[in-house]
């Protein structure tokens, strides 16, 4: 009888422990989705407190603290939405794991922002609105605050629904909307807006054309050669050298300017020398790597893996240099106007402002990045290492040139445009090969044109959704910004 009693007690205890375990698992399941927002809120609060301490007790300290908090919020959203364009192709091609991609991107993004992220900020903060048309520094501060809040909210919404929109579009639209609300249509520098708008159209087309061109080169000179390995040994070092030359030139012009000013001609020579050096290093590496490989396309995918990772890293550096302006441009303008009461002179970028932008982008990438990395990497079109290398190289070159010129172009447009360029080139190439092969088949074995057309290599639903999101971003951000500006000024 005592044995039965003891057994029943153990059964009751096991049942209670099982219930406790289920409760703990349920709590962990519920708490996990709250972890990332909690960390984000902590970072935003820390940014605001740090700004309050660094800015001191001067007039406008509370405004600067609030602006720093919203700048951190915007930077987190950039990391969640925009950075997917850099690492998405590498992850989609299985050249990097999700964790590896996030770690590499976080380091490269921060380095790009801190080393070479100053030039574009002046275009974001001042080039869109003519400061002379704004009546007082307070009005200018509230306009920049409205732009910061509206763009952050819009990008947050887009990330939540899974749309890779342009954070650059969001900020530019926000600045424009607040400027119109503050001083009318005349406040907007329409010539600058026209140049920026033109770059929005040109950059994705250019990115797509360059990516398609590289893919055509790889197919013609490597993939369709009788001896694929020998062709790869000849051409892959050249492609990697082109990438290295472009990056070195960009770094010489922008990244080293705080130490020494380098003229364009010298920077081009540095890029050429770097390209030749990388070519000399890559030639023996490719030869060793390709020893014993079978003469097939699968071997080429292996050879392109490491260059793809390197090109994606370069792209993340360029993105950090270009897109940190989206987070800290309006914040830098607010800090300058609050500190000096002058909003018409050149804006200097405090180091702590750049740090908020750089670390915010990294936090956003770690906490919220995987969703859109998967979208860009695998859901638009199928990528392998060769196609993804073309996307990353094309996007890196285009972003570097745009940042070099001081234009706040959208890295989203460039990278996604490159993905579409690769996909549509594959469709065109597939259609061309289908026509040739179909002509050689007996009539009864020919594939119907409707059946062939049905096998699209680019998902049209994603294409239309993304283009629609691109179109609506600027007016939506502008409308939100104008509304927020009216609300802010009504209570001040």
TrEMBL record:
Main subcellular localisation: membrane
GO molecular function, one term: phosphate transmembrane transporter activity
Subcellular location, record wording: Membrane
Segments crossing the lipid bilayer: 34-55, 62-80, 139-159, 171-190, 196-215, 235-253, 259-281, 302-321, 349-368, 388-405, 411-428, 463-491
Gene Ontology CC annotations of this record: membrane
Keyword terms, alphabetized: Membrane, Phosphate transport, Transmembrane, Transmembrane helix, Transport
Keyword RNA-binding: no
Membrane topology summary: Multi-pass membrane protein
A GO BP entry: phosphate ion transmembrane transport
Taxonomy, superkingdom: Bacteria
Signal peptide: none
Matches recorded under InterPro entries: Phos_transporter
PANTHER family: PHOSPHATE TRANSPORTER (PTHR11101:SF80)
Stated family: Belongs to the inorganic phosphate transporter (PiT) (TC 2.A.20) family.
Protein name according to UniProt: Phosphate transporter
Organism: Ruegeria denitrificans
Top-level taxonomy: Bacteria, Pseudomonadati, Pseudomonadota, Alphaproteobacteria, Rhodobacterales
């Amino acid at each position: 009888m005592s044995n039965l009693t003891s057994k029943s007690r153990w059964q009751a205890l096991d049942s209670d422990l099982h219930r406790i375990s289920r409760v703990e698992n349920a709590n962990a399941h519920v708490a996990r989705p709250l972890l990332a927002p909690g960390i984000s809120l902590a970072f935003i609060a820390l940014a605001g407190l740090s700004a309050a301490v660094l800015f001191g007790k001067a007039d406008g300290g509370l405004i600067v603290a609030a602006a720093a908090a919203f700048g951190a919020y915007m930077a987190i959203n950039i990391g969640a939405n925009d950075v997917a364009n850099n690492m998405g192709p590498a992850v989609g091609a299985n050249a990097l794991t999700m964790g590896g991609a996030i770690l590499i991107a976080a380091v490269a993004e921060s380095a790009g922002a801190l080393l070479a992220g100053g030039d574009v900020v002046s275009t974001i903060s001042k080039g869109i609105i003519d400061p002379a048309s704004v009546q007082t520094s307070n009005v200018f501060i509230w306009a920049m605050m409205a732009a910061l809040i509206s763009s952050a909210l819009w990008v947050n919404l887009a990330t939540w629904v899974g749309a890779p929109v342009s954070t650059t579009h969001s900020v530019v639209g926000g600045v424009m909307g607040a400027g119109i609300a503050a001083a009318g249509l005349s406040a907007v520098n329409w010539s600058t807006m026209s140049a920026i708008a033109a770059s929005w159209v040109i950059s994705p087309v250019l990115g797509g054309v360059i990516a398609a061109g590289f893919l055509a080169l790889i197919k013609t000179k490597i993939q369709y050669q009788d001896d694929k390995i020998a062709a790869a040994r000849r051409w892959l070092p050249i492609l990697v050298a082109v990438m290295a030359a472009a990056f070195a030139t960009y770094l010489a012009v922008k990244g080293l300017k705080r130490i020494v000013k380098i003229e364009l001609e010298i920077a081009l020579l540095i890029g050429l020398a770097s390209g030749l050096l990388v070519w000399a290093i890559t030639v023996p590496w490719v030869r060793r790597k390709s020893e014993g490989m079978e003469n097939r396309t699968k071997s080429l995918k292996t050879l392109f893996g490491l260059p793809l990772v390197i090109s994606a890293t370069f792209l993340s550096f360029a993105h950090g240099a270009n897109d940190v302006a989206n987070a800290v441009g309006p914040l830098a303008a607010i800090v300058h106007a609050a500190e000096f009461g002058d909003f018409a002179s050149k804006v200097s970028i405090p180091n702590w402002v750049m740090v908020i932008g750089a670390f915010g982008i990294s936090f956003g990438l770690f906490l919220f990045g995987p969703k859109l990395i998967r979208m860009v990497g695998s859901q638009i079109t199928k990528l392998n290492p060769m196609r993804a290398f073309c996307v990353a190289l094309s996007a890196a070159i285009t972003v570097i040139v745009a940042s070099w010129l001081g234009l706040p172009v959208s890295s989203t447009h460039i990278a996604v445009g490159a993905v579409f360029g690769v996909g549509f080139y594959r469709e065109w190439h597939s259609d061309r090969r289908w026509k040739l092969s179909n002509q050689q088949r007996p009539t009864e074995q020919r594939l119907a044109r409707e059946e062939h057309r049905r096998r699209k290599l680019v998902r049209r639903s994603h294409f239309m959704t993304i283009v629609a999101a691109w179109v609506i971003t600027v007016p939506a951000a502008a409308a939100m910004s104008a509304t927020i500006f009216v609300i802010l000024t009504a209570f001040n």
